[in-house]
Amino acid sequence: MTPCQLAYSQARIRAYTLFRQEQPERFNELVQQARRDLGLPVAEGGRYILPIDHGTENGMRMHYRRKIPACQPCRDAYNAAVRYRRQQAAARKRKRTA
Ligand SMILES: [Zn+2]
Questions:
Q1: Given this model, what pLDDT does residue 43 score?
Q2: For residue 39, is pLDDT > 60?
Q3: The pTM is what?
Q4: CA 58 to ligand 1 centroid distance, Å
């Protein structure tokens, strides 16, 4: 975790605590302020625009969440990750039965 991510998650925890303390209208405001302090992009309407991490399994997930058709590098990364996990599971199974 980078210092930037750490500061962001701490700010988010603070914001969430306030939210729980019956200040739901302050939640988004605090999260947005935290993002501004860290120089992260802040989008209109309380939704965050982070660039999609193309060519990674997480990038594939970001495509899905935004309902944007996945690009080829993301599909490839996702398929490779699924294939890898399947092979690992098969290898474990072989070990158990052997
Ligand atoms: Zn992509």
A1: 63
A2: yes
A3: 0.50
A4: 9
CA 97/CA 36 separation, integer angstroms: 54
Query: How far away, in angstroms, is 27 Cα from ligand 1 center?
Result: 30
> What does the pLDDT average to over 66-86?
92
Distance 40 CA to ligand 1 centre (A): 20
Closest CA to 53 of 79, 34, 71: 71
The top-scoring range by mean pLDDT among 25-34, 50-59, 73-82 is 73-82
CA of 93 to the centre of ligand 1 (A): 33
Distance of alpha carbon 49 from alpha carbon 44, whole angstroms: 9
Query: How many CB atoms are closer than 10 A to CB 75?
Result: 15
Distance in Å from the first CA to the final CA of the chain: 39
